[in-house]
Amino acid sequence: MRRMRDIVRLPVIDLTSGERLGWVKDIIYNEKDNTVSGVIVEKDSLLTHPLEDMSRDDIVSFGKDSLAVKNPEGKKISGASWSQKVGNKVFNGEGDIKGTIGDIYVDNTVQKVLGYEISDGLFADLVKGREAVFEENILCESQDVVVIEGGSLS
């Protein structure tokens, strides 16, 4: 299991040319089926458009230190973005606020969204750590709110 935060800012390397294309600026995923659609790459060049969509189909691997692509086509991708989801409020089924989304968990191949890391504020995070809520415990979610089962996150 990986956190999307660890993927953002990784360099993007083209395996056919060996060229560094830029940096991962954001990750886009489909909220309906919880699959990663692709990434938004911030290009190094000042002469071209600074941002480029890169479909998950063009990505060969998400390594620890870089993201490898082969023959990127620049297909348009759509869905929710990591940067827009982080900070959204999380409520339990009784309507009590449980915290905010601190990060999003994905599987090791970065194809499926598994759940969210929940922050209850800096002090609570330092004392008890952040908690996780996985897809099977989510009752519903919208663009800016997530509702989870019961009163417990774990």
From TrEMBL:
Protein name (record): PRC-barrel domain-containing protein
InterPro entries the UniProt entry points to: PRC-brl_dom, PRC_barrel-like_sf
Q: Which residues does the UniProt record annotate as the domain PRC-barrel?
A: 3-74, 86-129
Domain of life per record? Bacteria
